[in-house]
Amino acid sequence: MSNNPTIKQLQYLQALAAEGSFQKAADKCFVSQSTLSAGIKEMENLLGLPVIDRQSRKKLNFTSFGEEVLNTSKVILSQIDNLTARAQNLSAPLSGPFRLGIIPTIAPYLIPNILPALQKEFPKMEFHIVEDLTTHLIEKVEDGDVDLAVLAFPYETPYLRQQVLYDEAFYVAAPKGLFEKNKKLSMSDLEDHPLLLLEDGHCLRDHALSACKLVPDKNKKTLSATSLLTLIQMVAQGNGITLLPEMVIKEGFLPKNIDLVEFKKPLPTRQIGLCWQEKSMRRDSVQAVLQNLKGTLQ
Fold it and tell me: How confident is the model over 76-130, as pLDDT tens digits?
């Protein structure tokens, strides 16, 4: 009888490491918490060593051997995914699950435009949208957990291919009447107003500051939020101004007590583009979806 852990047990362990709790890991794997716990315990019995440090009650910790198992299982599961993807590409091209990553400041505004076109052109594909911050999505593309990601640039992706599709302008969202009607703003016009920004970790924050050549004043009180929707509501309540990309404005769902003000030329912009792993085992599917997105977005 083999003493090797099963693929399912390795998947349980990876989910536990990613989620940080047994319940969340079980939910991710679509099993009960007791099933996941029993699977990991059985793996420990097979290996003859613990992978989880059960002395710590407050926080999930892995033993030093558990860290080795995690690193090895990540490689094993990646190779199995590649093998499965290769077989699928050979037997039924452009079919099966396709994991499309999109950052939160883009997802709500682009998904209604891109998903119907993808589903129409690739009816045999099952599109799974993975919404996450840029740093996490890049890691997932590198690890093969995401096939293709829609990101905002500039952003360094040294181990991945990227292609910018278009530039997107920023606008100022301000409480109604704060600025003169039909006035186009320069950067100096923003200096005397509280600037509302997304929290650290959102690339939109960095892109907006960089594009507008703004440096937050550490001595001045600032407010931040975790989503664009919250920022918009804060502006509507008169808490300050914020910078919004054009795709948000095109949706037309902004409160009536907000003015949208253009900048003087040259307009501050961010870039929208795609990021993928060049040597992906699903490169045929990736390239096909990539071409479709280029046609839709450009």
Answer: 888 888 777 777 666 656 778 899 999 988 999 999 989 999 999 999 899 999 9
Beta strand pairing status for 148-153 and 269-276? Answer: antiparallel
Rounded (5°) CA angle 7-8-9 = 90
Residue 105 CA from chain centroid, whole number? 9
Residues 62-72: what's their mean pLDDT? Answer: 93
Domain boundaries for CATH 3.40.190.10 within the chain: 96-165+271-297, 167-269
Within the chain, how many helices (H) and strands (E) appear?
10, 9
Closest CA to 157 of 168, 146, 173: 146
| CATH 1.10.10.10 domain position(s) in the chain | 7-87
Q: What 8-state DSSP symbol labels residue 144?
A: T
| Three-state secondary-structure class, residue 27 | helix
